[in-house]
Amino acid sequence: MQKEIIVLLGGPGTGKSTLINELVARGYCCYPEISREVTLEAQKRGVEQLFLEQPLLFSEMLLEGRIQQFKKASQESDSVVFIDRGIPDVVAYMDYIGDEYPDFFTKACEDYKYSKTFILPPWEEIYESDTERYENFEQALTIQKHLVETYQKYGYDLIEVPKDTVENRILYILDKI
Hints:
The protein has helices at 16-25, 35-44, 50-53, 55-75, 87-97, 103-111, 137-153, 166-176, and strands at 4-9, 29-31, 80-84, 116-119, 158-160. The protein is α/β, with parallel strands linked by helices.
């Protein structure tokens, strides 16, 4: 059986982490979003918002972490692995803020390919800001646009997950794989 490395993507507050947590509860192998981890680590060192203050450093750390997740996922014994956000997300966010980045960012997007990509649409009713999610809903819409453009640029067919209950969203994803 071929290994399926599946990425859940979407702008901030679309429900990705909630779905990953539910997939974990159902026994699926999942890798969490790591940007909060990078942000919290920087905050411990006195940098309140590393992405805002040093976006290239933040993005390099994130890219390396996501590459490591991909490599680990491809070694898992499970035939299906879900990942909360993928490598192209890093490029999409850099494009969103208008910063330049080294060629190895785009090379990583070309070298590490996910089996399937599920995109969660912006959903204002469930959107919440917190200490690590600084964007407002309008910014989340713009980020979503960059995510779609970036993933399509790298040849992905995005499968949109309908706005629905967590249960129905999970069933939709599982039905598509």
